[in-house]
Amino acid sequence: MKCPFCDNPDTRVIDSRPTEEGHAIRRRRGCDKCNKRFTTYEKVEETILMVVKKDGKREAFDRSKLLRGIARACEKRPVTMAAMEAMVDEIERILGSTMDKEVASDRIGELVMDQLKKVDEVAYVRFASVYRQFTDVNTFVKEIEKLIGNHKE
Fold first, then answer.
1. What percent of the chain has pLDDT over 70?
2. What's the half-sphere exposure (Cβ side, CA atoms, 13 Å) at 137?
3. Which long-range contacts (CB under 8 A, 24 or more apart) does 56-59 make?
4. Burial classification of residue 12, based on how many CB atoms lie within 10 Å of its CB (0-12 exposed, 13-18 middle, 19 or more buried)
5. How confident is the model at residue 21 (pLDDT cuts 50, 70, 90)?
6. How far apart are CA 141 and CA 120, in angstroms?
7. How far apart are CA 139 and CA 17, in angstroms?
């Protein structure tokens, strides 16, 4: 594994252990050249899930893109990176359990909103405002009223 800091092609494994879910191996690695440490994850390569965009274009599912979108919604909110990664894990699990080779981007957006709503309602509204393309303040108010209505139930 190449060192991400100095590009040294030879690094060594310091520690290896399974992740909590047991679907991947977490490896702590060290570089003998620059003495920095970094973490890698090794997991089974699965079939590629294709995302069908609103315009009909298809692209491969990208976990990091999903995590970036969630992180953007959670910016300056009390949501840990571990919680964000857990949301992505859950979305991947749901998508993987369907055994479909293609999924609509709308479905992924709805799954993200479901996860965000459970973790942080402000992040949920932020994501929903972009995802659902809120055009005015009234749309925000309606979405917040829905959240308040759910709390009363």
1. 97
2. 0
3. 58/102
4. exposed
5. confident
6. 17
7. 47
DSSP state, 126? H
Q: Report the candidate in 119, 84, 90, 91 with the shortest Cα–Cα distance to residue 105.
A: 91
pLDDT tens, residue by residue, 76-113: 999 999 999 999 999 999 998 887 899 999 999 999 99
Burial profile 51-86: b = 16 or more Cβ within 10 angstroms, e = fewer: bbeeeeeeeebeeeebbebbbebbeeeebeeeebee
Q: Does pLDDT of 152 surpass 70? A: no
Pairing of strands 24-31, 11-18: antiparallel
- Mean residue pLDDT of the chain comes to 90
Give ∠ CA 54-69-117 in degrees, rounded to 5: 95
